[in-house]
Write a structure and sequence with these properties.
The chain has about 250 residues and is an alpha/beta fold. It is built from seven helices and twelve strands. Strands 1, 2, 3, 4, 5, 7, 8, 10, 11 and 12 form a ten-stranded mixed β-sheet that branches. The relative contact order is 0.17.
């Protein structure tokens, strides 16, 4: 029997000086193919080529990846400023309605970094454009210099709610994570449950209240060294199990 398919949302890049491409990090495909034990399928997040309906029918689950461009503030009722950085309006047009459709259908998804922020916005929440400018917050951005290992190094603890979803999945109430983001949750959407926070109060883990299927999202990057990371392994393994359960429910 074929393994289930997980659509991995790709980002729009320019390779070199002028070669346009869609891409996602190999660490995403390795985590889905190896730890979740699903077929990783890269998805160009562009409404000119795919529709939400196409994706729901073609894929069994979705990984909403990180990415440099941010969700456009008009999606949560705010004006664009310099602090909001770059945008990818095509990705917004695909991912936000896709997340809402997955929640409605019970189709599983796992969201990372920008994906974490997309889930909040899709469900009616808002974002801070630059959390390091908030009083009492640390700089969560990726270090500008250094090796890949240094950029993805574990930098701060995340505290899960006692008895919450993430503690049950990971088996710990406190974990160490990397941090490579500039924006963060301002107001959680009505159904967003913040289940993990950093020491400075920044939301780091969430799920959707009363969602029919797997709907976990994290602000850090669990795909890095996922095979050897004690936090990442159970997250991707549980996601893979949820995708297989979704496939079995459709067949039944």
């Amino acid at each position: 029997m074929a393994r289930p398919i997980v659509g991995i949302i790709a980002n729009d890049y320019i390779i070199g000086e002028d070669y346009p491409a869609y891409a996602c990090g190999k660490m995403n495909t390795q985590a889905i193919g190896g730890l979740a034990d699903c077929i990783p399928l890269m998805i160009p997040a562009d409404p000119n080529y795919v529709t939400v309906s196409d994706l729901l029918q073609s894929c069994d689950g979705f990984l909403f990846t990180g990415g440099r461009p941010n969700v456009h503030p008009s999606e949560y009722g705010e004006e664009e400023t310099k602090a909001h950085g770059d945008f990818d309006r095509c990705r917004d047009e695909i991912t936000l309605p896709l997340i809402r459709a997955c929640v409605e259908r019970g189709q599983p998804f796992f969201a990372i970094c920008r994906g974490f922020q997309e889930v909040n916005v899709a469900m009616g929440g808002s974002l801070y454009p630059e959390i390091r400018e908030l009083q009492g917050r640390m700089n969560h951005r990726m270090p500008p210099d250094g090796t890949l290992e240094e950029k993805f190094a574990l930098r701060h603890p995340v505290h899960f709610k006692q008895g919450g979803v993430f503690e049950k999945v990971v088996g710990k109430q406190e974990v160490m994570t990397n941090t490579l983001h500039g924006q963060g949750i301002k107001e959680p959407g009505p159904r967003i449950v913040i289940d993990g926070i950093a020491d400075d109060g920044t939301p780091e883990a969430l799920f959707i209240k009363d969602a029919k299927g797997f709907s976990l999202a994290v602000q850090w990057h669990p795909e890095y060294n996922a095979a050897t990371d004690p936090v990442s392994r159970p997250l991707f393994a549980h996601f893979g199990d949820a995708v297989r359960e979704w496939v079995a429910s459709k067949q039944a």
